Amino acid sequence: MRHPLRSVLPAFSALTALALVTGCGAQVEESEAEGKGGGGHYPVTVTNCGEERTFDAAPERVVTNDVGITEIMFALELEDHMAGYVMRDRHGETSGVPWADGYEKTEWLGKESISKEIAVGADADLVFAGWNYGFNEAEGFTPATLEKLGIDSYLLSESCRNGEGKARGVMSPLDALYTDLRNLGKIFDVEDRAEKLVADFEERVAAVREQAPEGEDRPRVFLYDDGRDKPLTSGRFAGPHDIITKAGGDHVMSDLEDSWVTVGWETVVERDPEIIVINDYGDVTAEQKEEFLKSFGPLKNVSAIKNDKIVVLDYVDLVESPRNPAAVETLGAFVRENS
C-alpha cells in the first residue's frame, strides 16, 4: 500500500525554488534538500513481514500500541511523527532509558485495547502494532480493517506469522528488532539514526557474549510469563530466546517454533531449568509469581527452585523493544554470577 502523499505540496514548492537557482550552487542546495528528507528520498520501499510496502512520504500521525513498539519510535526520536500511543498505565521504570521524555512529548491515548475508533479519533495515518500486539481478528482490528479506513499499518517483526496457522516468528528476535529499526529509519528518513542504534546494540550484545559461558557450561534457562494450570513461556521467536542465549544461557524451549506459547508443566520438569526468568507483567506481580513457583509441588525438584536461582525482568525488557540489549546485559551478569 502506498502512503498518502501528505507532503506533496511542500516537496513541490522546494523543487520549484531549486529550479530557479543555477550553477554549482543549485547542486549544493539540492544535495542539502535530499539530505534533509526532501523529494530525493521518497518513495521508499521496505519489506515488512514478507510484504513490500511503499511510502511516498513519512507518516505524520502514527499511533503505536504497547510499550515496546512505542519505545522503538521514541528511540528513533520520532515523537514529532506520532499522534499518540496506547498502552497499559504501567510501562516499567523509565528513568534509566535515554528516550524516557518521549512519554511527556507524546499523547497517551488510553490503556484499553487499541481499536479502529482510537485510530480514527487520532486522525492516524499509520498504526504500528503487531499480531497479538494490538492486531487481532477476533476483535475485528487488523491491517485490512485499517486499509478500508484509509489508514496504513506497520507490523512488529517479532509478531510476523510464519504461515503455520497463527504461529508467529520468521527471524531471530534481535534480528526482528534491528529489522524494524532499519525499516523505520528508511520510512522516516532517519537511516543514520537507526544504524547508529543498531551498531550500539550489536556492540553491547557482543560484549556480553564474549564473557558468557559456552557449551555445557551454559545453564538451562526457562522463561515464566504466567499461568497456573499451564505456563505461558517463550519459544525461539519471542524476545527471551535471544536474550537468554546471548546472555550465555541454554534456552530450554528453543525447539518451539513460535513466539509466546503455552506448554505443560511436565515439560518444564523434564527439562530441569537451572535458572528461571520471571516476566514482570500483568495483574499478578512478580513476587506472587515467584511465590507460586516455589510452592508448586511438581517443581520442588527442579534445579532453579531447589537452588533459588530466579531473576525478574520487566515485560518491556522481554518483548521486542530497544530495551532488549540492556536485558541481555542484566541477565548476562546473573548467569555469570550463578554458573
Give the end-to-end Cα distance, rounded to a whole number of Å. 50 Å
Alpha-beta content class: alpha/beta
What's the rounded overall pLDDT mean?
A: 90
Largest sheet: 5 strands, parallel
Number of helices: 14
Q: Just name the CATH architecture of the largest domain.
A: 3-Layer(aba) Sandwich
CATH homologous superfamily title of the largest domain: Nitrogenase molybdenum iron protein domain
Approximate helicity band: 25-40%
* Number of separate strands: 13
The share of residues in extended strands comes to: 15-25%
Low-confidence stretches: 1-38
What is the top-level CATH class of the largest domain?
Answer: Alpha Beta
Please give the radius of gyration in angstroms: 22 Å
The H/E string reads: HHEEEHEHHEEHEHHEEHEEHEHHEHH
Shape: globular
Which topology of the largest domain does CATH recognise? Rossmann fold
What is the count of distinct domains? Answer: 2
Report on this structure.
By secondary structure, the protein is of the alpha/beta class. It folds into 2 domains: 45-200, 3-Layer(aba) Sandwich (Rossmann fold), CATH 3.40.50.1980; 213-337, Rossmann fold (3-Layer(aba) Sandwich). Helix content is 39%, strand content 16%. It contains 14 helices and 13 strands. It has helices spanning 8-19, 24-35, 67-75, 102-105, 116-121, 143-148, 173-187, 191-211, 239-246, 265-271, 286-295, 303-306, 315-318, 324-337; strands at 44-48, 51-55, 62-65, 82-86, 126-131, 134-135, 152-155, 220-224, 232-234, 250-251, 260-262, 275-280, 310-314. Strands 3, 4, 5, 6 and 7 form a 5-stranded parallel β-sheet that branches. β1 (44-48) and β2 (51-55) form a beta hairpin. α8 (191-211) packs parallel to α14 (324-337) and α9 (239-246) crosses α14 (324-337). The longest helix has 21 residues, at 191-211. The termini are far apart. Mean pLDDT is 90; it is low at 1-38. Pfam families: Peripla_BP_2. InterPro entries: ABC_Transporter_SBP, ABC_transptr_periplasmic_BD. Belongs to the bacterial solute-binding protein 8 family.
